[in-house]
Specification:
By secondary structure, the chain is α/β, with parallel strands linked by helices. 38% of the residues lie in helices and 24% in strands.
Length: 368
């Protein structure tokens, strides 16, 4: 089994990087250097080789290098699920992001069919104690890793829901105005629900079937009975039945946008939200690794992992175990940390780069 690989990466005027060109073997990548040097900016660029707004969910203009404020560009040669490809993506000032694959314009969803990508960033450490929106986003990213078209279903659902919410806020009561929108929401909503549950089952199975030094969790959907009717017909009925309540609230109160993801630390029988900060981090890493194993088993190729500041919060044993699992997966994992010593357990199994800031510009140097 071999993993998906970014074989070369070129950046132009992307955040702190004025120009960057890297050639890569496919081994894990260790990026180290002081805070603020541009390590996270680099892996954010890699994340934009997948659909969506990347690991920071940034607006396109926020990715511009300042003070120049020229258009930003990312170009990469990749070994994808169906062979080699050249990917280019970027945006001019004030313009929408554009994507090209092998020299031809392409929708972002096409990136998800070439590269499967998972990430873990420090902001996700609060996943189990923040609001449900963050957990839904995490769940949907997990689901998209198995089914890239899940993103289209989410966008279609949200578009129809926005239009329905506009009618609700305007206190429109004529049922004729709602029928078509609710049918659209039901069709895409039923796909969302089915995709999410299928992804959850695959990750749970991967956690239980593979030995790991990280704690495992039981995952489950947290939904009221009328928020997960199970199919399009049930969701249409739930939306129609809920109009009176929704009119009073001015928004849609039924559907997959209300779902939440729960987790229990199996070894202790404790909800993830009540675990220590270290346990919550370990549970998250376990989920990312299980997701990667499930994808590798299903597709024959391990996904790319982006792990920002992951090593600093692990003891020596867990850090070595994480590196061993990544290497066993034959996975190209991009990892950041402040010091080279954090990656010493990788030995000669990784490519290393030092990232520094020089006169306001990120400088990346290979370390041998």
């Amino acid at each position: 089994m071999s993993g998906l690989v970014v074989a070369s990466l070129r950046l132009s005027h992307f955040r702190s990087h004025r120009r960057l060109s890297l050639q890569l073997s496919g081994a894990p990548v260790a990026l180290f250097g002081p805070n603020g040097a541009g390590k996270t900016n680099l892996i954010e660029a890699v994340s934009l080789l997948s659909p969506g707004r990347g690991l920071r969910r940034a607006a396109m203009d926020d990715l511009l290098r300042r003070p120049e404020e020229l258009g930003w560009r990312i170009a990469a040669e990749v070994r994808g699920a169906d062979g080699p490809h050249e990917i280019e993506t970027g945006a001019e000032v004030g313009r929408a992001r554009e994507t090209r694959i092998d020299g031809k314009s392409a929708p972002q969803i096409a990136l998800g069919r070439i590269l499967r990508m998972l990430w873990l960033v420090p902001s996700m450490d609060r996943l189990w104690i923040e609001g449900a929106e963050g957990r839904r986003r995490f769940w949907d990213r997990m689901t998209m890793s198995f089914e890239p078209a899940h993103g289209d279903a989410v966008l279609a659902y949200e578009k129809a829901m926005r239009e329905r919410n506009r009618l609700l806020k305007d206190q429109v009561r004529d049922p004729a105005w709602y029928g078509a929108l609710e049918a659209q929401m039901a069709e895409s909503g039923a796909r969302i629900i089915a995709n999410r549950h299928e992804a959850l089952g695959k990750v749970m199975a991967a956690q239980r079937q593979s030995p790991t030094d990280f704690p495992i969790s039981d995952l489950f959907a947290v939904t009221a009975a009328d928020e997960d009717p199970g199919d399009a017909i049930g969701l249409v009925a739930a939306l129609a039945d809920g109009r009176r309540r929704d009119l009073a609230a001015g928004r849609t109160l039924v559907g997959p946008h209300r779902a939440d993801l729960g987790a229990v630390f199996v070894a202790k029988g404790v909800p993830a939200a009540q675990c220590s900060t270290g346990e919550q981090k370990a549970l998250l890493i376990s989920l990312i690794l299980a997701n990667a194993r499930a994808l590798a088993d299903e597709t024959g190729a391990a996904p790319i992992l982006l792990l920002d500041e992951v090593a600093a919060h692990l003891d020596d044993g867990r850090r070595a175990a994480l590196f061993d699992e990544i290497c066993a997966l034959e996975c190209q994992a991009w990892m950041t940390g402040t010091g080279a010593e954090l990656f010493s357990d990788l030995g000669d199994r990784a490519e290393r780069f030092r990232v520094d800031e020089v006169d306001g510009v990120s400088a990346v140097v290979r370390v041998t």
